[in-house]
Specification:
Layout (H helix, E strand, L loop, with lengths): L1 E5 L11 E5 L2 H13 L11 H14 L7 E8 L2 E8 L2 E9 L5 H16 L1
Antiparallel strand pairs: 1-2, 3-4, 4-5
């Protein structure tokens, strides 16, 4: 299995960097067998906070950020939000939660509160 995620464009660069994800087909088949045996259906595979932290660490290294610079990563998928803080290419903190708002606006306020809490 192969998929990719386009990374932000770099001004003045005609090319586009991408993050490539590869997942072994045999491992996916085994995973599917386990999920189906449980009476479920596998809908998607996602990137974990650990993989995201590795991407951020490599980006920090490539951009020569100062050792005391901190990077905040926020990933939101529907009602699920994951917040991570990195410094000096190390994961300092990660937190995930479900947003419980009754609409998108309330979920956005809840997400902002979670981000402020992580930064505190």
């Amino acid at each position: 299995m192969l998929d990719f995620l386009p990374l932000p464009r770099v001004e003045g660069d005609a090319s586009r960097a991408v993050l490539i994800f590869m997942f072994d087909r045999e491992k996916l088949d085994v995973l599917n067998e386990v999920v189906e045996a449980a009476g479920l259906e596998l809908e998607q595979l996602g990137v974990s906070s650990v993989a995201t932290a590795e991407l951020v660490a490599r980006t920090e290294r490539d951009r020569n950020l100062a050792p005391d610079d901190t990077t905040l990563t926020v990933a939101r998928d529907g009602k699920r939000i994951e917040i991570s803080l990195m410094r000096s290419r190390h994961l300092l903190f990660t937190h995930s939660t479900q947003l419980t708002g009754s609409d998108d606006q309330q979920d956005s306020r809840l997400a902002s509160a979670e981000i402020r809490r992580a930064l505190g």
